[in-house]
Design a protein that fits this description.
The structure holds 2 protein chains of 2 kinds.
Chain A: E1 9-15, E2 18-24, E3 29-34, H1 43-47, H2 54-61, E4 66-68, E5 71-73, E6 81-83, H3 91-98, H4 108-115, H5 119-135, H6 147-163, E7 171-173, E8 175-178, E9 189-193, H7 211-223, E10 228-232, H8 255-264, E11 267-272, E12 275-276, H9 312-326, E13 334-337, H10 365-370, E14 372-373, E15 377-378, E16 387-392, H11 397-405, E17 409-412, E18 418-424, H12 434-443, E19 445-447, E20 459-465, E21 473-484, E22 487-497, E23 530-535, E24 546-554, E25 557-558, H13 560-567, E26 580-581, E27 584-592
Chain B: H1 2-6, H2 8-28, H3 40-54, H4 60-82, H5 90-110, H6 116-125, E1 131-132, E2 135-143, H7 150-162, E3 180-185, H8 186-193, H9 195-201, E4 209-214, E5 219-228, E6 231-232, H10 239-264, H11 277-282
Antiparallel strand pairs in B: 1-6, 2-3, 2-5, 4-5
Helix pairs in contact in B: 5-10, 8-9
The chains are: A alpha+beta, B alpha+beta.
């Protein structure tokens, strides 16, 4: 067999004085992992009944069986990499709750939290000791032992993350969540560190509730040689505050704000258990795939009513408009997916393997069909969450972190669909081999996450393959957003479709590939295992501020609600609940930033 | 004799004796029930707990705080005892039982760390815990289900490959999947190709092109050059893992053993006729 340039080479890698021989591929591989997960070291998860620690979360990601709400559970396919992101705000409390010798362990509040026998009691305890304390202006319940306790728990998380790092096989990333929610607007960000150069203590919303304060802290860390970035999530819950017109200090967004934000904030979490933040049909009525895991019942709580400002496609377009106004784009984001599971089960994303993400609230089919997630939404509106794929040269902490930092990452709603996206000049309409395509992709252009620079109308090359255990692909779309005479616009192009359905005018007839409602089986005949296209924007203008991102749509599959009903004849979800979905992947954008 | 010293219950009783002795000793100094005395022994004990937790010396404020916390607890505790609040209270019972179990858990920390000999023995007795999945070295060529004349094409290419001819360029990394897989574990093959493919692989002959082998992607021609069956990992390669598992299992066993030994001291009489008979009988001693 002739030599294949895309095959990985062996390379030497050192971590903590230990040498590893591992695969390195300059043309990159897609590595799938979790970048948003809570364990018992997040106090809200603890109160809801989670007792699994960061150590056990990493074990689960590597295929070990753990007890979820008392029942044994396993991931279906192991992950390539993972990060535990416990809430920075309550790490100290978690330390007292989890460790017998810690001061505060036997306090009335801690005992009540540990011993809550059911959901109702747990919620009462949560209200009494946490919410009421917060409402009274106390950042902490009374058993908080101070910053030494925070430091101790952070150290425990660091130890677990170090312990499970197996370079080349399983990467772990040091991380935590900054959970600011002014007036219940979700501004949460997950913070990621590149190596073991780490702060003594994470910066939480208690120390600073505005993103600017977080960036100030991150700037301090950089001065100490620490490499760090963050990814915001749940823009759908942000009450218009994630993509604002005015900063939290009431000053208008200026160039310094935009540059600082872009420097530290690299990806948006497109989808997670509390909904898909891309778009909703109310504001994008012409997007036929907008009605997907929209988590609409969120709007009944906390005044988190949906507005266009809350969604990713709006944010990206507002970003390019800011570029036009300021010369810098504050919302220059790639995409990631996560679960935000509070059960410590990393990327437990397969619909048929879903056992809930919130302790006692949704651990049974009945609870998922009937209960509400206290004060937030209906359980049946939640979904198992998404995955992040990162194109990286090797499975190491540095390479995965760099891949996310360069926005060469993509989100999926769960399946392991792989997607590549390039913009350049001189691509062929199709390639005899994958190898030639990828070499041209990098050689004659830029990958996802970057700017296309040039006056010539670029070739956009997009390629996707299916998940081997999921159905085939339906189509690939390119979504364009731009600014025209000061107005923000966006549109969708179908660029590839299975079964010869793409017509010259760009329309695609729907595919008839039904799910068997009695068995949950998907259609195995229709669709394509691979789709590829080289596409040109008919309206390209090199002087127009614009972005292009990719959406890959899979054929229909059973949602967890259907699996629950098939397996539990007594369980019936309300009629408003979807039983069938079309899962998907989103590749990070490529931008056009004309020089002035 | 050696085994005698390894008995968890014995450790448990000895520790109990020391704890009891300690309280006996300190309470001897108390003048009456209404006094709370913090003497050197008590203070050193509290100070030690605090330092163990925070890994530093307390300042004046810290000392005041932990003394206040202690006194607060003592006052309420003594009052509660005087009022008999501890008697038959379910929460007190649960806490005391937990405390007792915690003491038995701590035993593991006190039993000296395992020797290499202990680990070897544990490794030998629990081989099933240290199995590596099968490992394959193979080549694959993928055909999509909608390719023209699929069956004939597969036969034609199979023959060509069997006669050492080059693979057609269109089949190189079809769908991005490598043609050559060196020493790849069944777990990774499952991730890359799906379950059907790895199950079929297991039954295929070595050193010849065979197929079609189905996967979620399509049909494959496969040439397996080496198959290493599932085997027990080499002790030296996984020593750290063996140690981790040894500690974990020993802790579980110790807990169970202490419970069983203590249960022996009691006669369990289930007089309620509502408990199913089989369960009732399982508690009666033979």
């Amino acid at each position: 067999m002739s030599e294949d340039l895309l095959e990985a080479n062996k390379t030497q890698y050192t971590h903590n004085g230990k040498n590893y021989e591992l695969d390195e591929n300059p043309f990159k591989e897609a590595y799938f992992g979790e970048q948003h997960l809570h364990t018992a070291a997040s106090m809200d998860a603890f109160i809801a009944g989670t007792r699994l620690t960061p150590d056990e979360a990493y074990r689960f990601a590597q295929g070990e069986e753990v007890l979820v709400s008392g029942r044994p559970h396993k991931i279906n396919r192991t992950l390539d990499w993972a990060a535990v992101t416990d809430h920075g705000e309550f790490l100290g409390e978690a330390y007292s709750l989890l460790n017998q010798e810690a001061p505060g362990h036997d306090s009335e509040a801690a005992v009540a939290m540990r011993e809550a026998p059911d959901l109702k009691t747990a919620l009462t305890v949560y209200k009494k000791y946490v919410l009421d304390a917060l409402a009274g202006g106390n950042a902490h319940p009374d058993f908080w032992q101070g910053y030494d306790a925070v430091k101790s728990q952070w150290q425990k998380n660091i130890e677990a993350t170090e312990k499970h790092y197996v370079p080349g096989k399983f990467t772990t990333i040091h991380a935590y969540e900054w959970s600011s929610a002014p007036n219940t607007a979700n501004l949460h960000r997950n913070v990621f560190f590149r190596d073991t150069n780490l702060p003594d203590i994470p910066f939480s919303a208690n120390e600073g509730a505005s993103p600017q304060e977080l960036w100030d802290w991150m700037m301090e860390q950089e001065k100490n040689g620490i490499k760090v970035f963050c990814n915001p999530h749940n823009s759908n819950e942000s009450k218009g505050m994630l993509f604002p017109e005015v900063a939290m200090n009431d000053k208008p967004i200026d160039k310094v704000y935009a540059e600082t934000r872009q420097h530290f904030e690299r990806n948006l979490e497109m989808i997670q258990t509390k909904g898909n933040s891309e778009v909703v049909p109310d504001f994008w009525p012409n997007d036929e795939f907008a009605d997907f895991e929209n988590a609409v019942s969120l709007q009944q709580y906390n005044g988190r009513v949906y507005e266009k400002h809350n969604f990713v496609r709006y944010g990206l377009t507002r970003g390019v408009k800011y570029y036009e106004e300021l010369g810098a784009n504050p919302f220059k984001y790639g995409f990631v997916g996560g679960t935000d599971s509070h059960n410590a089960v990393m990327s437990n994303v397969e619909e048929w393997n879903y056992v809930g993400h919130h302790g006692m609230a949704d651990n049974t089919a009945e609870g998922r069909s009937k209960n509400e997630q206290d004060g937030e939404m209906y359980n049946r509106d939640m979904n198992p969450g998404g995955l992040t794929g990162v194109w990286a040269t090797s499975n190491t902490r540095e390479a995965i972190w760099d891949g996310m930092h360069n926005r060469e990452s993509f989100a999926t709603s769960g399946p392991r669909i792989k997607v590549r996206f390039f913009a350049g000049n001189g691509y062929q309409p199709s390639y005899g081999s994958y190898e030639d395509m990828v070499k041209d992709g990098y050689g004659k252009g830029v990958p996802m996450g970057q700017n296309y620079v040039g006056q010539e109308s670029p070739d956009f090359m997009v390629w996707a393959i299916k998940d081997p255990i999921a159905p085939n692909l339906d189509r690939i779309q390119i979504i364009k957003g731009w600014v025209e005479n000061g107005e923000m616009k966006d549109t969708i192009y179908n660029v590839a479709a299975s079964d010869d359905r793409l017509t010259p005018d760009g329309t695609v007839s729907p595919i008839d590939a039904p799910v068997n409602m009695k068995t949950g089986e998907f259609n195995k005949e229709k669709g394509a295992p691979e789709l590829m296209a080289v596409w040109k924007d008919p309206d390209f203008d090199p002087n127009q501020n614009a972005y292009y991102y990719v959406r890959v749509i899979q054929l229909p599959t059973a949602r967890y609600s259907l699996w629950d009903e098939i397996r539990n004849p007594d369980v019936q979800y309300p009629d408003d609940t979807k039983r069938v979905i079309q899962e998907r992947a989103w590749a990070s954008p490529i931008w056009i930033e004309p020089s002035k | 004799m050696k085994n005698f010293w390894k008995e968890p219950l014995l450790h448990f009783l000895l520790i109990g004796f020391f704890i009891f002795g300690y309280y006996y000793y300190i309470s001897d100094d108390a003048e009456s029930d209404n006094a709370i005395v913090i003497d050197d022994a008590e203070y050193d004990y509290l100070l030690g707990l605090w330092k163990k937790q925070w890994q530093r010396d307390p300042n004046g404020e810290d000392i005041k705080a932990f003394l206040d916390q202690y006194l607060r607890q003592e006052v309420f505790y003594k009052e509660a005892l005087a009022m008999n609040l501890d008697h038959n209270d379910i929460i007190v019972k649960r806490r005391l039982a937990q405390k007792m179990e915690a003491v038995s858990n701590d035993l593991n920390a006190m039993i000296k760390p395992p020797t290499d000999e202990d680990l070897h023995l544990f490794y030998q007795q629990n081989q099933d815990m240290f199995q590596l999945p099968p490992v394959y070295t193979f080549q694959q060529v993928l055909f999509l289900n909608d390719e023209k004349n699929l069956e004939e094409e597969m036969e034609r290419i199979k023959l060509a490959l069997t006669n050492d001819m080059d693979m057609p360029i269109s089949k190189k990394r079809k769908l991005s999947l490598s043609n050559t897989w060196e020493k790849t574990s069944a777990l990774d093959i499952n991730k890359a190709f799906g379950r059907d493919f790895i199950l079929t692989l297991d039954s295929l002959p070595l050193n010849q092109w065979v197929g079609p082998v189905p996967s979620g992607f399509g049909q494959h021609l496969v040439y397996i050059s080496k198959k290493e069956p599932s085997k027990t990992a080499n002790f030296n390669d996984i020593k750290l893992y063996v140690e981790k598992e040894y500690e974990y299992r020993t802790e579980l066993q110790t807990q169970e053993q202490v419970y069983r030994d203590l249960l022996e001291k009691y006669q369990v009489k289930i007089t309620s006729g509502n408990v199913p008979e089989a369960i009732r009988n399982s508690y009666s001693k033979s």
